[in-house]
Amino acid sequence: MVSIVEIYARGNRAVDVNQPTGLDIHITNDGSSWLWTAFSIFGVVSLIHIFFYFRHHKNNLSQALFYVSPLIATLSMTYAYFTMASNLGWTGIATEFNHVTVSSGGNIRQIFYARYIGWFFAWPALLLAIAFSSNNKTNSFGVHALSSWILIVLSADIFVISLLIGALIESSYKWGYFTFAIIAQLFSIFLVSHRVYGKLSSPFLSKIGAGLVFLLWILYPIAWALSEGGNVIEPDSEQAFYGVLDVLTFAVIPLLFIHSGRKSSTAPATSPAVAPASNKPIEPETARNSGETIV
Predict the structure, then answer these.
(1) How many domains are there within the chain?
(2) Tell me: the pLDDT tens digits for 73-126?
(3) Is 6 a residue whose pLDDT tops 50?
(4) What is the CATH number of the domain that holds 181?
(5) How does it sit in the membrane (predicted)?
(6) CB of 39 closer than 8 Å to CB of 244
(7) Is residue 96 in a domain?
(8) pLDDT grade, residue 11 (50/70/90)?
C-alpha cells in the first residue's frame, strides 16, 4: 500500500501521467504546477461568489444576474484550469516561426483549446457583471438594455473564437483572425464603457474595476502574439503570462463589483419630496348658471 508520505513526495505528475505525445514544444511539471495553483485560486473565489449569491441576492432578476455573472466566470475558469493543469484539453500545431526551438528540431507546439472554452463563458459573464454593476438597483429589461447585452456577449465570444481559430492555423493567415479579435475586443470595450462611464449613478468602484479589466484585457492579444501566434516564449512562460492575467481579471477584480454592488444596494433610496396633504376637507364644486360670477 502506498503511504500518504510517498504520494506527497511524488508531487505533481500530471505531465508524466498525461504525456504530451507527438509534441515538441509543451509545458513541463513546473508549468502544470502553476496551473494547479491558479485552479485552486479560482475554486476558492467560486465558493466566495456562491456565498455572496445566496446571502445577498435580491428577489429580482437584475440582482440575481449581478451576483451570478462573476460566479459563471470563475466556475468556467476553474474547469478550464483543472483541465490544463492535468495536461489535457490540448492539440499540437506546427509553429509559423522558430523563435522557440528544441533539440529534436521539431516545431509542433502545444495549444490548449481548453483555455478558450473557459474564456468563451468567462468573458461575456465578466463583461455583463460590469454592465450590471453600473446600476444594479434597477430591474429594467427594456429592448435597448437587452440588445446591448446581446452585443456584449457576441463581441466577447467573437474575440475568443477568433483567437482560437488563429491559434489552430499554421500559416500567416492566423493574423487575419487576430485582427478580427482586436476589432471585437475594442467594440466590447466601447459597449461596456458606454454603460459604465455614461451613467452618473454608476458606483465608483465599478468604474475603477472596469478600467482595470480593460487595461488587463489589452495585454491578452500581446500574450497570444508571444505564445500561440509568434512562438516567442516557451509554453511554461505562456501559462505564467495567461495565468496571472486570468487570476487578476476573473478572480480578483470581480470582487470589486460585488463590494460596490453591496454598497449601492444597501444605500438608502431617495424619492422626490411630496407636499404634505392638507387636513382641510375638499368641498365639491357646485354647478353655476351661465354668466354667474364666483364669489
Answers:
(1) 1
(2) 999 999 999 999 999 999 999 999 999 888 778 899 999 999 999 999 999 999
(3) no
(4) 1.20.1070.10
(5) Multi-pass membrane protein
(6) no
(7) yes
(8) confident
Burial class (CB in 10 A: 0-12, 13-18, 19+), 220: buried
Q: For residues 169-195, give the mean pLDDT.
A: 95
Please classify residue 265 by burial: count the beta carbons closer than 10 Å to its beta carbon, then call 0-12 exposed, 13-18 middle and 19+ buried: middle
pTM of structure: 0.82
Separation of alpha carbons 193 and 187, rounded Å: 10
Q: How confident is the model at residue 65 (pLDDT cuts 50, 70, 90)?
A: confident
Q: Residue written as cell 529534436?
A: 104
Whether 181 contacts 158, CB under 8 Å: yes
46 vs 187: CA distance, rounded Å: 28
Could you tell me if residue 285 is inside a domain?
no
Nine-digit cell at 126?
465578466
Q: Is residue 70 part of a domain?
A: yes
